[in-house]
Each structure stands twice: as structure tokens, then as C-alpha cells.
Amino acid sequence: MGKNNEQNKKDEQLEKFRTDDRGKKMTTNHGTKVSEDEFSLKAGERGPTLMEDFHFREKMTHFDHERIPERIVHARGFAAHGEFQVYESMKEYTRAGFLQDPSVKTPVFVRFSTVAGNKGSAEAVRDARGFATKFYTEEGNYDLVGNNIPVFFIQDALKFPDIVHAVKPEPHNEMPQAASAHDTFWDFVANNQESAHMVMWTMSDRAIPRSFRMMEGFGVHTFRFVNDQGEAHFVKFHWKPLLGTHSLVWDEAQKINGKDPDFHRGDLYESIEAGDYPEYELGVQVIKEEDEFSFDFDILDPTKLWPEEDIPVKIVGKMTLNRNVDNVFAETEQVAFHPGNVVPGIDFSNDPLLQGRLFSYTDTQLIRLGGPNFHELPINRPVCPFHNNQRDGYGRMTINKGPVSYHKNSLADNTPETSTEEEGGYVHYQEKVEGRKVRARSESFKDHFSQATLFWNSMSDAEKDHIIQAFSFELGKVKNPSIQQQVVDMYANVSLELAQGFAENIGAEIPQTGGSGVTKSSPALSQENTNKKPQTRTVAVLIAEGFDGSEVSSILDGLKGKGIQPEIVSDKLGTLKGADGAKVKVGHTFLTGESVLFDAIYAVGGSQISEKTHKDAMYFINEAFSHFKPIGATHHGKKWLEEAKITNSPGVVHGDDAQAFVKEFTEAIAEHRHWSRQLV
Ligand code: HDD
Description:
CATH superfamily of the largest domain: Catalase core domain
Number of strands: 18
Cofactor: heme
Pfam family, one: Catalase
Helix content: 25-40%
Number of domains: 3
Mean pLDDT: 97
Structural class: alpha/beta
Bound molecules: CIS-heme D hydroxychlorin gamma-spirolactone
Distance between the termini: 49 Å
Shape: globular
Function: Decomposes hydrogen peroxide into water and oxygen; serves to protect cells from the toxic effects of hydrogen peroxide.
EC number: 1.11.1.6
Radius of gyration: 28 Å
């Protein structure tokens, strides 16, 4: 339970399943007290182990079965509990109960993930991120199973195994792990050009988020809202993080993966433990049924977004994540999401990717969680009553009383009984459908490049440069020159500037004509235009014995007052003394606290600096500078700036007045990165 949170209904339910083994007697799973847990039962001290040692057999059997299959995609994930509240009733559009009353707090469970990597892979990899939310509503569980990218690689679910096979490690040598920078992925891209738009996103900064707390979420598909009068609207869902959408830089991300492969989960876990609860606003874009064909893209095509400038995102509520899980396996690993878990008022569209997903998610849980009763696992149970005639299967926990397990019946007065629409029964939206049975792609799904160009046009210069560098990196790792050239030629259709930019870097033939002719841009797509806030940013304070005590402590207090988190870094752990006797406790050494693990650097120094500390501090500062991070300096720290020749660079702050320094440095930190910096 996060600090100051009341127990919600889901938490009360989970409480019944929690157990604390501390202070208890050890027993077998059958309750027999255990007298010895060091030595197996043997025939004589040096003799063979006996089969009748039931404690040994049980302990070992359980251990042998501790692992379950990891998710085929999104294996590496981390989750938290929280709550969702709507700002105002959405009655006009939907009858969904949890979207009606602003005073109602709906418990949620959110699992963030990478897509391609296995369960033990590093987190700051280039990839889409899963953003799956389970709302435990009074009308049943509603799952919004989205990503941090609003479009998808493919248009038809039949191709999902193909894209996943292509991006996963290659089967003949199982390399590379958690990376798309290899031949089969790019071969897929070049030969399945519907991927053009999403690949623009995965090559952009969006694919290396700074934090799960600083990325957007998207439902991707077009869904339907249906109101009490049975009227439907098409809808797309958005999560907007209040801290803004921010990213790492590629060199930094790669280093983080070595220094701290748990970087993203650590960041989420620590923020929640510290009471800095991550917050996301829920937004919806709504299109009237009669406007289905009013756009220059098909709204059923999952490779297309709805530009926010044309169809504004209406902010309708807020989600706060306020509690870490008690047990990662029981909750995060066993949670089972399904885009088909809907409540009355939320319905599907004919997006062929969504339609296929509706099959896949239950199917995968059957192999992953071992049978049809995974809905009984504590994390998956709805908080409202659930009754039907489904029975038996592996791991059944519910004890259904009575002889009746069929519908209709007279022995139980025909119960459990169905509900009318008015009583809350789910009635599918009665869309009129007719057509021939065909395996085909609609003509309206065939424009693969326009929105890829829209995305490119919307980027700032720095973002464009990062995209060119990402293509250059990924294709630089591709061994087959034909694949490299195919990708260059494909992206010439998106933007000649882009294709020429990376073709040159990878030694491919440089295209001379191209472009999709799209000149429009969508400023909402650029992270330059996101919220910029200093709160929760970490600052490495590089400090040594003999620092100026009173001023440093007033600056650190000033930064903390802005919600910034200074952490002391020095040559060894312990306590450091200032010139005036002030003391600070060291949190990290230069060995454990790399610059890549912090948002900003505050260089202080001191009167006693060894050659080694000097060298380490200079490395720290130069590396942070090359990652465009804010750098502040006072006292001796200013000499380090001079030595690095960065004193007058953008985002570098120094001064003698503590208050003015705090103000300026806070602004520099809020900016996140200083792209206008010239690197030498
Ligand atoms: Fe999926 C997991 C998101 C297309 C089949 N998917 C999974 C998770 C997320 C998404 C966030 C992890 C859930 C968790 O944390 O447990 N998937 C998406 C999005 C898609 C998408 C946003 C496109 C818009 N997925 C997609 C297709 C298929 C699947 C087209 C198959 C037809 N996805 C699965 C799966 C997974 C899964 C194999 C693996 C583990 C699981 O379901 O529970 O069934």
C-alpha cells in the first residue's frame, strides 16, 4: 500500500490471499511441521538418500516446476497498482460505468514491458513498450492493452507471428537479444512495407524512453464507445504522462543496459516507494459514425494515427500508480491481459489486427498459465461477482455447490440468469455487416508512406538527426547489402532527406528521387512540445572533502524544494566533511554511480581532490555533456567546466548566488536535454 492510500476493493480482495511467513513454523505444503531442512533423510550418515523423505521430494518437485513459459512477446515487464478517476461524466459517449462518476476511484493494475527481449533482457533497449492497463470495474475487468507507439507494424493479425519471428533473435544462432538491428527484422520491413510508419517510431526517440513514467500510451486500434441510447462513436485511447514524454539518447541507453539492466523497473519502483506517484491522463479522440469515411486514411487501419490537430484529444480522467506489487511472480507474471475484456459501453471495430488479437490472448494464457482457470488467480479476479456454468480444469479453486452446471435449467430456477441490456448485460453493437468471404487487403489500407512522412515532417532537427543515426546504426548491423539497399529504397518513398542521410552512412547507393509528397506536419508528435518539469529528476552531486558546506546545503535544499533529487557521488562511501565542518553522506562512488544513471550533474568539488577523483569527475562531466544533460557548477566545480571547455555551452549553469543558481539550474533540468549544444 502506498503512503496515505485507503484500501480499494481490489486491494481488499488481494489481502485475503496474502501471507507472511515471517515468525511462523516451517511446514510441508500439507501442513506437517518440518524438523530438519538442512539434511535429506539417509540410510546412515554417509549412506544413500531414502525415497521416503517426503520433505525432500516435495521441496525438490516444487522447485523443479517453479518456472512457467515466458510471454512470447512482452516477456520483460514490470507492474504497479493504482487508481483511475474520470474528470467528468462520459455519459454522452459511453455507458461504461467507470467513466460516469468523478467521485468513483477504479482500481487499476498496469504492466509496462519491452516487446522483443526475453524475460531477463536489459530494459533500455530500442523497442516499443507495452502499456497494459487492467481496470477492475464494478461491471467486470476492462483491459486497455496498448503500447507507447500509436500505430503497429502490420495491418492483419495473420502476420503477427511473422513480424515477431523476424524481430526475435535469429533461430540459427539466437542472436541478437532484445534488438531489431539484424538482417531478418530489416528483411521483413523491406518486404512488408506496411511497417514503414511504425518503424519511423521505433527508430525515433520514442523507442528509448527515459522512464515508464515519461512515456505516452495508446490503445492503437479504433474502438467504439456506445452510450445509453445505443449510439456509437469511434474512439482512440491515449495515456498522457503528466511529467511529459522524454527519452534517453542512444549511446546513453546502450551504456545503461550494461550498468543497470533494471533501469526502468528501478525507476518506477523507487518513485512509488518515495511517494512520487506516476500520473497519466486518459485522453480520447472521438469520431462520429457518419464521419467514418471523411479522412484521407482508413480509420480501421492500425498503421494510421488520427492527427491530434485534426481530431483533438479530449482529456477525460487521470490514473495514479501508487503501490508496488508484493510479489512479482504472483502479480506481474501471472496477470493475464486481453483486449477482449470489455465492459458495456466499450466495443470493437473491424480493424483486422484487433479482430485477430481477440483470439490470441486467451490462447496464450492457456499455455502460459496452464489451463482455463487463470481468471481465478488473485490478480486476474474481477472485483464484482462472477457466476456461470463453467466448471473444472487444472487448478480450479472455486467450489461450485449444487448439481446444476448448465443453462437452461429448472432445478436452479434457470440461474445463473442472463441480464438484459438495461440490467447491465453486454450487448454487442449491432453494426450492419455484409460481404463476400475473401482473403484481401482493402484498397483503403494501401498507402504505407504518407503518415510515415507526416511523422518525419513533425520532428525537430535533433529528433530527425536521431532517426537518421538510428537507421544508420540498425542497418549498419545488417550484414546483407541487398537488405540495406532495399530499406534505403523503401524509405526514399517516405523522405529523400532521411533515406539519403542514412544511405550515405551505411555505404549504400544514394537515392536521387523520392518523397511521398506529404507536406503536412503534426506538432503533437514531437517530444519538443511535451510537458517539461523538473520534478523527480535525479542529479549527481560530484563532491569532495573540504567543500563549501553552508552554500552546498542551501543549494541542495533549494533543489529538493523543486522536487529534484540530488544524490551525492564521491570517491568512496562514508561521510564527507566540508571546510566549515558540514557533513554529507555519500550515496554512490564513481565506481557505482555512472553519469548515464542520472538526469543532471552538479559539480561542486572540494579543497582536497586527488588525481583519481579529478579524472573520474572529468569523465563524468564530459560524458553527461555528450548526452546533452544539464550541468551545474559552483566553487571548485567551475574549474572542471573550464577544463572541459563547456562553461558557456547551453544547459551549463554556474554562478555565485545560490538562489539564482537553483532557479537557473532547475530550469535547465526541466528542459531535459540541451540539443543546441555543439559537441566537439
Ligand atoms: Fe499483443 C502481449 C500490446 C498486437 C498477441 N500485447 C501483449 C502485451 C501488450 C500487447 C502490452 C503485454 C501484456 C502484458 O503485460 O501481459 N499487442 C499489443 C498491441 C498490439 C498487439 C498494442 C497492436 C496494436 N498482440 C498483437 C497481435 C497479436 C498479439 C496482432 C496476435 C494476433 N500479445 C499477443 C500475445 C501476448 C501479447 C501473444 C503475449 C503474452 C500475452 O499476450 O499475454 O497473445
